[in-house]
Each structure stands twice: as structure tokens, then as C-alpha cells.
Amino acid sequence: MSSEFRDDLLKADLEDLSLGTKIALYCIKKRRGIKKTRLHKVAFLIDRIFLCGKTELGEDAEPYQFGMFMEDLAEELREMSEEGILYEKNRGYDLTDYGDELVNLFSNEFSGMSKLIDALQNIPDMEVVKMAYELFPEYTKKSKIKDKFPDFPNLNIYKLNVKDIDPHGKKITIGGETITISPSS
Questions:
Q1: Is 2 a domain residue?
Q2: Distance, CA of 6 to CA of 59 (rounded, Å)
Q3: pTM to 2 decimal places
Q4: What are residue 48's phi and psi, to 5 degrees?
Q5: Contact call for residues 109 and 82 (beta carbons, < 8 A)
Q6: What does pLDDT average to in each consecutive run of 10 residues of the chain (185 residues)?
Q7: 47-to-52, 167, 185 alpha-carbon distances in Å
């Protein structure tokens, strides 16, 4: 590893990361400056739909002002900010150089999910919120913005066809291409 950071520190921090935290960090790396609301929605969608609840993400999800909010994830992100892995930027997050190196150590674990994460990252913020609201309406009870999406007439959002999700077979169709999702455990 050609890094300015000590390998033993990176490896120790890597061992402390849960799959859910890795998903959040990977999403931050893929979309620098990702907004907090968006990160919660994307991480929740990846866990609940595509990983069938395999991670700890979403276990504490609760209805909040903009849909589902995960206090445990928010706390982990605060701690990683204090540890110098990421930093807050314009109501969002970005990685430090150290955080970038850390994500590089595990990014190969996400090869099966990278196309999916890329597809979600290319969807505008409000469309991600719309998707989360449609698929998980129980988390919209306290939402201040749910009236912006009254009928959800069409979830074919930017070539991500939500109707083609097969969570049991871990497959999703993006455009005309079916992707099999096979994350590391």
C-alpha cells in the first residue's frame, strides 16, 4: 500500500467498521459532499431493499422531518468526523485524505454493488427521497415535505426501475441491464 498513513492504523480502523458504516463511507466517496438527508436515504435503501436488512443500518430508523432518519448512523458519522475520517461540508459530508485511504482498503468488497450505488448516486436528491417515501411510507409520518409527492405516479426514475427489484435474488434492473448484487458478508 503506497500511503502516507501508517498501515497498522488504517487496518485497525478498518476492523472497527461495520458493513453499514462501510456503505455510508463508500457512498460519501462516490458522491463528495453528499447531503445528510440523501446519505440516510441511500444507505437505508441499499440496506433494506438490496441487502434485505443484512446490516445494522435502519434498525433504529424512525420517521423524521425528511423521512427516515437513523440516529446510530448519525452518531457514527459524528464520531468519524471527530476521528478525522470525514468532515462536514455544506450540510453534508466529505472524506479526509485518511478517510479516502480507508475506503480504498475495502472498496473492492463493493464490486457487486458499485453499479447500484452509482445508479443511486446519479439520481437527484428529491428523486431519492421520492423513492424512499414510496417504498417506505411508514417513515413519512413526521415529514415536512411529503406533500410534494402526493401520488407517486411513476417510479421509473432515471433508468432505475424500482419495479424490477428482486430483493430475494438480490437483482435489480438499471436501464436494460440486470445487476446481481453480491456484497461481502
A1: no
A2: 34
A3: 0.75
A4: -70, -40
A5: no
A6: 71 86 91 90 81 69 82 91 93 94 88 74 80 82 80 48 49 51 39
A7: 6, 10, 13
